[in-house]
Amino acid sequence: RSEKMAKSTQFIDNEVFRAYATYAAIVLLKMMLMSLITAYFRITRKAFVNPEDTASFGKGENAKKYLRTDPDVERVRRGHLNDLENIVPFVGIGLLYALSGPELSTALLHFRIFVGARILHTFAYLIPLPQPGRGLSWAVGYAVTLSMAYKVLKTVLLL
Amino acid sequence: RSEKMAKSTQFIDNEVFRAYATYAAIVLLKMMLMSLITAYFRITRKAFVNPEDTASFGKGENAKKYLRTDPDVERVRRGHLNDLENIVPFVGIGLLYALSGPELSTALLHFRIFVGARILHTFAYLIPLPQPGRGLSWAVGYAVTLSMAYKVLKTVLLL
Amino acid sequence: RSEKMAKSTQFIDNEVFRAYATYAAIVLLKMMLMSLITAYFRITRKAFVNPEDTASFGKGENAKKYLRTDPDVERVRRGHLNDLENIVPFVGIGLLYALSGPELSTALLHFRIFVGARILHTFAYLIPLPQPGRGLSWAVGYAVTLSMAYKVLKTVLLL
Prior knowledge:
- 3 copies of one chain form a homotrimer.
- Chain A is about 75% helix and about 0% strand.
- By secondary structure, chain A is mainly α.
- Chain A has a single domain, classed as Up-down Bundle (Four Helix Bundle (Hemerythrin (Met), subunit A)).
- The longest helix of chain A has 30 residues, at about 15-45.
- At the A-B interface, α1, α2 and α4 of A face α2, α4 and α6 of B.
């Protein structure tokens, strides 16, 4: 048992992998935060999509009027979907990148820029900031993931 | 060759990792099931979104009337998107958690509660159950992922 | 330090894992490409969703008319969401599969068919090809992921 435990923690002893685990966890938590922000706006704007969610507002027409879209809710939802579209590739490619033997400093640079860019992207989307604020923060995160994918393919390519 | 094979299976010998692999595969299969349920409702409700999908119903107006949204189809699609928003963080953070050396019993507790909560969430969404059924099942899965993220960051933090 | 580096590259020395890393990176890059195609259609069709994205077209009504949905944009977005729904399970289950000790030739067969099917699916969605072109390419990718999940559960099952 203790030997197995040792084996499982060996992996996490690798510094690049620890950095990956730290930033991947942080950016996934940031993505999860979007669910809470959506719920906050749905409740404060009284804008729901499922009939069963408005049952506490009464029956019939009184409840039905809360089944509507709200611009703030839709904005958070777009930000959440954009997170899925960009953070999923980062988490997947980043894992392979962390296992491809990069220098710790190079890896940290990639992870820090990506996570910083995605946090900026969320603020740019939700405030919202004038363009090209959101566009640039999106592009920086995208470029970091491309750079990691290039390193992965250069290192491991087996087609 | 056999030495390489040995190396690759070593990893899977770790019990916590085996438990993670089991529950991650199950919950990803559950998420994939949503595609089949969507297809089932699209076909039985005759509610499609792509013109090429209605070509078998004939040409012109006859086919066009099946290009419509249906409440049951939209409900399954919302459940599917909610799965993506919650199961992706579980799979990502759960992998890091499994590598962070938790006790097997603690890890199993996390994995079982999460997967159970997401299965309940699907039933609550599709039946649908009155609230707070769906909300609670969502919150339980969310809390499990937060608990794993806390363990990961406590163990590996390298910023 | 050099010992740690060795440990991290050991893993990537496994041929099945190298094959997984190659195909996972390629199919995630393919998914990321959908963002660029969406942006291309939004700009050429002048169809935006965020008011701040149309500010460069002027103020008031002149800019507002570009806040609209466009069939081509929506089509790419549906393809992108379909990628998320199918590529996420492949990347997750594929990682576990690669660690479950399959034969290299069997693993390559799975990875190549999945990635080929998803590239065909994208062409079938965007051109669009008549059905069952898109349906079949979707089903092939789906079946490959099910086959990998079966191997994973057969090898590691620990409930």
